[in-house]
Amino acid sequence: MKAIRSARRQRGSEVVEFAISAALLFILLFGIIEFSVALFDKATLTNASREGARTGILFRPDPRDSGNEDAAIEQAIRNYAEQYLISLGGPASMTIEIQRFDRNGNGRFDVGDELVVSVDYPYQFLLLPGFIGTLGNVLELNATTVMRAE
């Protein structure tokens, strides 16, 4: 008789336990997916900045036109990012910064000079901010590549 009363009191406890553990499981699962996508996007930005730097250091006969070269560098970065970046909110809004350093002091960008390409990208979380309100909506990802001109 006592066993029957005890079983009646515990009816529904499995459902409550499952609800608590399932919520934690789903937060953990979506967290793993979210941060995996963020790490993939970080690697993609690093590769995109390398592609841009490679485009900028290629040999070109004098006089070099830095305006056209900057446009080509930006286009190479945007093409790579558009092809590989996981951005579910539409096209990626990146900030690209290009700097040249004249290491040999001759006033021109030529062999041995450094090109620095920096790319900043605001990664927007897909699901986690809905679950965890204190986690911001945006994570700033950036990549910087330094290469010497050929």
Distinctive features:
about 150 residues, alpha+beta, 3-stranded antiparallel beta sheet, membrane
Structure in a nutshell:
With 150 residues, this protein is α+β, with helices and mostly antiparallel strands. 51% of the residues lie in helices and 19% in strands. The chain has one domain (12-149).
Polypeptide structure, described:
With 150 residues, this protein is an alpha+beta fold. The chain has one domain (12-149). The protein has helices at 2-9, 13-57, 66-84, 128-131; strands at residues 95-101, 114-124, 138-148. Strands 1-2-3 form a 3-stranded antiparallel β-sheet, covered by helices on one side. Helix 2 packs antiparallel against helix 3 (66-84). The longest helix has 45 residues, at 13-57. The radius of gyration is 26 Å and the shape is rod-shaped. The model has no long low-confidence stretch (mean pLDDT 84).
SSE order: HHHEEHE
Strand content: 15-25%
Low-confidence stretches: none
How widely separated are the two ends? 89 Å
Number of domain units:
1
Could you tell me the radius of gyration in angstroms?
Answer: 26 Å
Roughly what percent helix?
40-55%
Count of individual beta strands: 3
The major beta sheet can be summarized as: 3 strands, antiparallel
Pfam families: TadE
Transmembrane segments: 20-40
Domain TadE-like: 12-54
Keywords: Membrane, Transmembrane, Transmembrane helix
